[in-house]
Structures are given as C-alpha cells and as structure tokens.
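Quick one - first record:
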Amino acid sequence: MASVTAVIEDDTAKPAEVPGAGAEVRETLGRDVLGRRLPPLKERLYPPMPKEFEGGWIATLAITAFAAILRFWNLGNPVKFVFDETYYAKDAYSLLKFGYARQFIDKPEGAADKAILSGNLDVFKDTPSLTVHPEVGKWMIAAGEHLFGMNSFGWRFMPALFGTLTVLLVIRTVRRMSRSTLIGCIAGLLLAVDGLHFVMSRVALLDVFLAFWLVAAISCLVADRDWTRRRHANSLEHRDGSRKIGRWLLIRPWRIAAGVCFGLALGTKWSAIWVMAAFGILVFAWDVGARRALGAKRPLLKSVFVDGLPAFLSIVLVAIVTYTATWTGWLLHDNAYGHDYASKNPAHGVMKVVPDDFRSLIHYHQELLDFHTGDYIKKATHPYSSHPAGWPIVARPIGFDAVNDIKPGTNGCTAQPPTNCLSVISAVGTPLLWWAGALALLASLVYWIAQRDWRFGVPIIAFATCWAPWFAFDDRPIFFFYAVTMIPFTVMALALVLGKILGPARQPDLPSTPRRLVGSAVVGAFVVLVVLNFAYIWPILTDQVLPHPDWLSRMWFKSWI
C-alpha cells in the first residue's frame, strides 16, 4: 500500500530550483522543510496511485454495501410523511404525473396525506404551485416513485441510493488525495455511520442530493488535478521550448464533468453557488502551482489565459447551461406557475431581446429569492431552529418524527407502568465523529497553511463554503439538517488527519515501527468507538420504540430535546 504520508509537491518552488531540462530536471532534486531530499519532479507532480489489485475496489464496494444495508433496511417505515416529506414527495409525484408542480387538497388539514397513504392519489388541484427550490432534487425523488410507486419506500428510495453513492465517492476521492486505500476506506466508513447523513439518506428531502452533487463535483476537480499533472509530468520526457509554459490542456474532461455536477447541485439548492465559486479560485491556484513547479516563467499570467479562461468555460458556463436545462419541464408546460408572466407583462429595454419563456423564468427566480429573503420568512419561527455556530458540535439537532406516550404492552412498548414509551426520528450527527471532526478541521487548517499540503485545503474550503454562508441568514429559521452537506468533507479532513496519526505504511523489506503500531492502535480504537457511538444512537435514528428513560439516556444535552 502506498505511504499515507507521501511527499506532496512544493507548489511554491521557484523556477530557479528546477534548472535545466530532460534528465537534469529529473536528477536535480530539492529538499523539503526538514532537509529531506525530494523525489524527482515527475513523481512530485503525480505521486503513484496504489494498485487496484491490492484491494482498492473490493474494499470500496464492501464499505459501500455496508452503507447500503444500513440505509435501505426497513426504509419504508414509518409508513407516513415525515417532516417536509409532505411537500417534496407530493411535488415530486406532481412533476412525474403532470410535468410541473400542482397544488394539492388541503382541507381538512392533512387530507392529501391521508388520501395518499390510503391509496388514493387523486389529490391534486388544477392550479399550479409555487415551489421554493429548483426541481432537480424533486425529479430525483420522482424517479423512485416511478419505480416503486407513490409510497413511503418509493419516495425514499432515491435518497437512500444517493446517500449510499456519496459514501463510495468519498472513499475514492480520499483514496486519490492520500494515495492510500486504507485512509479512503476509513473516510467512507465514518460517513456510513454518521447519524445525520444516515437519517437524511432515509427521508425524502433535498439536502442529501445536494451533498452528493457537491461531493461529485469536487471529486471531479481532484481527479482533474491528477489528470493534468500526470500529463505535465509526462511532458518532462520531451522538454523543449514548451518547458516555459507546460502543456496546453484546453479541453479537460473532468472539469466539464465537474461543471455538470455543479449545475445539478445548483438545480437542487442554490447554496451550491458558494462552493462552486470557492473551488473555481482553488483550482486556478492549483494550475498556477503546477506551472510554477514546472519552472514556467510568469506562471500566474500564463495560467490566466491557458488555464483560467478554459476553466471558466468548462466549469461555470457548463454549470449555467446544465442548471438552465434542469428547468426544461417548467419551460415546456405553459400551465406551470408563473409561466404566463411574460404574456401579461410586456418587456422593456434590454429585456425585449429575451424570449418570453426565459423572461418568465427570470421572474420566477425573483419570486423564489423573495421567498427566501423576504420579511415573511424572517418573521417565521420554528422550535427546532438551529444557529449555524452550533452545527459543528451538534448543539441543536432536529426531530423529524415523534410518537409520544406509547402505553406499556402496546406497539412493542416493554416498559413497566407507569413509564411510557416513545418512538422518534432525530437527525443527530454521531457525536464522537462530529466533535473529533471539528478538531480535525482545525488541524487540517494548520496542515494546509503551515505545511502547504494541498490535500487539506479541499475539505477546508468545501466545509467553509457549505457552512459560513448560513450565518448571513441567521435571522430566519435554519436547521441542523442543512449541515449534511458539511459532513462528507468533515470525514475527509478527519481521515487525512488520522493518516498523519497512523504514520507511513510499512515497507515490505522493513519491520513495523513502534510509531506505526501505536498509530494503528489509536486510529483503530477511534473508528471502533465511532461505530459503537452510532450503534448506541441507532434507536433514535430509526423510529424504534424506547422506554422513556432509555430515550432520555440518548439525549445527552437539554438542547437535544
């Protein structure tokens, strides 16, 4: 297995440190901050990946299967609408049946839910409905309803599937960054047993899809970094005048794929825009670093034209086109909400050149923005509202469902009178994982800045852009479950830090060092404790019937109740 602590290329190396060309470049080596001789430039640009026959995909699929078993087990229960499923599951079915969202009967209160649960799907009115998020996530829920019917399993199938696939992506992304199958698998296993990600994978809400598309986009960008540097490294075999600028790589397939994923993330929730913007800057910095390491003159200026402009087209423009395409259903249905705006409001000025359908779509977006930022939402309150400052330490989780006062001897309640039972679904992160993850993020910031280790910048930037923007909206109800987009990147940071604790992999011709043995014991013990912590809170994640004292023993803080 490749070393966990493989030397990372020094992107700040000056051109003078890479003199000459051809064999001289490969033989003239610098030294790191500890005075150790660096490997050849080609290996620093593209460290070798661990070989797949060593078990890479076997381990990946085994952990992914474990995550799938957890998420699909008893998925259809409870057989009812949980929390905001009452909106998204019905909106999804409306898209599936009519091509656009329609209002549903609401009198008496809950009439549509009761009808659907009894098998009557004729609950939609003829009037269109304003939905307050884009349509990608709802179309994904609709795919499950198409496959398995308009029932609790059907509307939860796709969240469970994409929650599971997120685990797979995290494994492969961390494996690529660390050059270690072990560290990648640790990251995937930790995500598999996180309580918040687990719950969000089992309810028909949008955020687990947002998390998937963001992880997919960033995974593509990390793959592009490898793809690009491997080609730069190969070009060292034929160094000539091109040494001054490196290879021209105008079409980069992984960046186009990242643009598509970012477009689908935006088509799920607009908050993805902050992640896309930050990573646009980060990947440009990667390009500048690569050309500087190659010895290019004026790497910043050259990267602007050779890398920056193509990156904008590949990522941002592709994302915009993809996002616009996600509104195809709305554009094709004249009865969709707000589609007739342009016909009722003649265009003025520059808007005259915009087709009516797109002018109506722009106005629809203005209405969505007003909903999320207007006085109505700012004055709203909710008992489970949670300030984002407390999210990294699980200060205020959210309850999705609760049945209280279950009498002894009924519905599986084994309590002795006068104690009653209850069953709940609490979207709470596995505490030990989140608390250790918060510390790992701080350590990652140090590794990124002090040691210039690019790998730690990936989870730091992703976590920060999934978290920090919510502070601007703390005057309206926001919820802990939004943090499900943060946890994949938290486990990435945690796994990389655990890799540092673990130490270098044992060389085949050398015995294990005490450092490696101690590191293995520490990392193994931590992973086991996280799994046990998840097992302990399992009943409050899965609607299990618990005697009141047993439930209370899992509510570790008053703010969790």
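second record:
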Amino acid sequence: MKLLIPTLLSAACAFSSMESMAAADLILHGGKVYTAEPGQSLQQAVAVENGRILAVGSDAQILKLKQAGTQVIDLHGKVLMPGFIDSHTHLVKGGLQMLQANLNNEDMPITELESKLRQWRDDGRARRGKFLYIGGIPTQYWDRIDELQQRFNQGEWAKQPILLAGGDYHTGWANQALLDLAGVDVAKVKSLQGEEQATIGHAADGTPNGFLVDAGLYPVQALLPLPTNDELVDALKGAQRYYHELGITAWMEPLANENPGGDIHNDSVGVLPAYKALSQSGELTAHVAALLMADSKATPADLDELDKVRQQFQGVNNLTLPGIKIFADGVAEMPAQSAAMLEPYSNSKKSGELLIDPKHFGELVSAADARGWLVHIHAIGDRAVRESLNGIEQARKDRHSGIPHSITHLEVVNPKDYPRFKQLDVIASMQLFWAAADEMSVDLLKPYVSAATFKTLYPAHSLLKNGATIAGASDWPITTPDPWKAIYQALERVGPKGVLNAGEEVDRMTMFQAYTLNAARTLRLEDSIGSLKPGKQADLILLDRDVFKVKPEALRDTQVLKTWFAGREVYSRP
C-alpha cells in the first residue's frame, strides 16, 4: 500500500457543493490521516461538524470549510486515525481488577504471594465479605498446588476461606476452608462423570486439592459477595478512562449479563445497569456493544428470556445489544486442558470438553440469526472452532442475513477450516498479543499436542491468506488491552522462548484495519464508526510517532496524544 497523499477525484467533486452547504466546527490539518476506508491513501486533514466527519481531504480543501467559530488544530505532521475498537474485552471486570487485589499474572514465590495476601487483607483490597480473594494469578501457580496447600491450609489461614483466581478467568485454587464451605469433597468428585471430573483437581482417591476449572470454579466463586452497583459504576469509569488513554473509543462487552466474579443471572442483568447509569449521566463516552451470554446448550426457545433482558436496555445512548455470546470450550494449557481438541492431549488421552452440542448448535445459531442477532463464540481448541463454524454454516444455509457472526480466541485452528471463515463470512476476533513463544505456549501446551497441531497456534497469516476478516481484540483483563502491544506481537510473534510459528505474522496495515473498520463490523457498527468517512461519528486519535514508518519495536510503545469521541476531546496526554 503506497502511503501517498493524492487528491481524489471523488473528494474533489464532493467539495464543489460542500463549500456552500456546511462549515466545520473543528478542523484538524497538516497531518497524516489514516481513514481506514478501503483503498484510500493517507489524507492531510479532517473537518468535523456536530460530532460527525464532515469531510476528509487535503489541507487546501478542508481549510476552505473554516469559519469564524471553527476550532483549528495543526497536527504538525503527526498521524491521525479513527478511534481504535476492541472486539472482545471484559471492561467492567477489568475496571474492578484495577481496584482490587490482583497479581496481574506476575509470577512470584509463594512466600511473596503470602506477604501480599496479608497486606491486601489488612488494607481491605483482598476482602470480599468473609472471604479473601486475589485475582490475576498466573497459571504457572497450578504447577505448585502442593505448595499452595501447605501454605494456605494451616496456621493463620486454616479457617480463612481463600480463593486465588487465575488470570485466564477459567481456573482457580481454593483453600480447604473454602472447599468445605462449597461442599467440594470426595463425594462431589466421585459424582462427576467423564470429562467433568477434570473440572475439580483431585488425588487418586478423589480428595480435592483445591484446583478448579470452569464448571468446577464457578459455583465456588459464586459464594463470594458480588460488587455493588456503585462499585461497578466506579470500575466502569476508571476502565473507560484507561481505554481513552489507549485510544480506544468502542468495544464489545461479551458477558453483559454476568455479575463480575459471579454467575449469569438474567434477573439482575450483570453490568448493564452500570452502563445505563453512566450513559444517563452523560459520561459514557464510548460505543459499547453488549452481548448477553447464552448457555452453551441453550435451545432456540431460551432466547426469549435473553430478549426480555435486551428490551430493558433498548434506547440507551451509546449502548447497543446486537447479539449473544456462547462458550464452545475452555482453555488449552496444562493443567486445565479443557479446550476441545480434534486430537487428544498426549498426557491425559482426553480431548477436552466441547460445551456445545454439535447436533443442535446450528439450530441455536440459526434462531439467533433469524432474530437479527449476531453470535460471538469463544473457541480455543480446533474441535471447538470446527463445531462453531458448523453451527454458523447451518444459519447461512437457512438464510443469507449478512449478520457478522464471529469466533474469538482461535488459539488452535485446523488448516482445513481456514477457508471456511471467508466462505461463511465469519469474523476472526483474535487476541494476537498471545501469539508469543512463552511459558504458556512452549511449556504448558507444546508438550501435550502434536507438532502439526502446535504449528496451527494463532494462525493469523493463514486465515488472512484464505480471505478471513481479522478483528483486533484483547480479552482484557486477562492480558493488556493496549492495541499497540498486540500489533507489535502480531508482526513479530516473539517471546522469551523464541518466535512462535514464524510465517504466521501479519503486516501493520492489516492490524490497523483490524482495530478499526473490521472491529466496527464485529460490533455491527460499521455504518457509524470504524473509519473517517463523511457522515460517520468523529472518533479520532492522535499519535506520538509515525506508525507507518517506525520499526516494529517502536510500534509497541506508541502513545496516544489525544482522543476525541464524537468530536469532543476525552483524553489529552499530560
């Protein structure tokens, strides 16, 4: 793609009539303007009127729209882009994590963890009623369960219920005091069937060791008191500030009926009241596409209950509810290994747990599609990805709705399924910050899958080559929401243990598109945001470096100087 600044014929024609019709209230000129419009090269200037893009073009063209009251900003050659969009983030949960006890996936000795727990117990950050809770525990701790048992099941902790929640939000460890309260014992383990037994870690005789995965974790976690509405609003405000600092002006909240730290309860409707409260106060300065989680084995009739929730939040400014989120499986890394794989894990000889019913999943997707709802599916393992595609294929056979269904995470994808993303018009919502040769991929996954399977980890280039649409996503607070760190990782795929699957890298222009127009389509907002096109909302970010020319290493540290939402400045770097 040539980074030139042409005078486009279509733009010139538009200006001939525009000059007499409208005047800008904001003009940004003298920059490198990336519009994210397909096929359009860099421009110089943007005019904004009433929060929307009035025109994009050369300095000469745009400055003609200046009038007495127009605010004019000289960009001094800096890069201006559309606001970035995160197509998968748990924003309110991330905001809570900023306020509570959290390791942020930092590995440390158990003695240091114990010291932090004491500190956070005493200052209140770890207290959740009578429980102590620390989030963001790195999964490396699950190799030290014996140490955790010895440290936190005796002495001052013997009668104190403690939950250490994994940074992946799928795993955790509960001490004996908490297991007793939750009724997790030998009898409970022996009552589980097949793959379910892997959700509660246990010795050969069935004695639980405290390790919990997904269905084993959620009931224990649900014992802890939930945050109040005021706490959720405070968390949302802090998280929104953080996202504006990163240049993010829109996102998908994929579990909007979840009470963070608890279960799905459609009667209390999760984080949606916090978004509504912030919107009603005029403080929601971002576009939020909130999805309601449907049970993995839900039937078409179950969608009626979710629709009742949706109806409560229609017409809330800057909030849309375009569809549903479904879990197809869990996570792939040892010891959880709950991601559904086509080939069994070499150590357990099990294939993980497919949460959806492949015989009927297509009926659910098609029913949602018929309602005009998008379906966004969590799929980590290659079997989960395949069955997710099969479900969407059923909807495509039933009708050509054009609704942009999506699959997120896509850690392992079988090569036979690469072309199906384009064929079925399925968006690949990828967290490419994870595409690194690190402990997660090299130590906790590689030894337990085949060499051929390992080569399909985060196959961004292969999907792109086969025509897939890639959308940028973070899954914050599991990992950083910073798009620039993810963009760097997508280009280099380097980690502390080398390069992960060289050849699966993508270029920066692909990633810029992934975080703008492609992500907007994932949210079903491509007609109003995602590119700098006349008529769309003026969500803009100004950058501190020329992201088209700097080396990949410099991309990683890109800073946002200013963020505008609907033409109004919502962040300025000090």
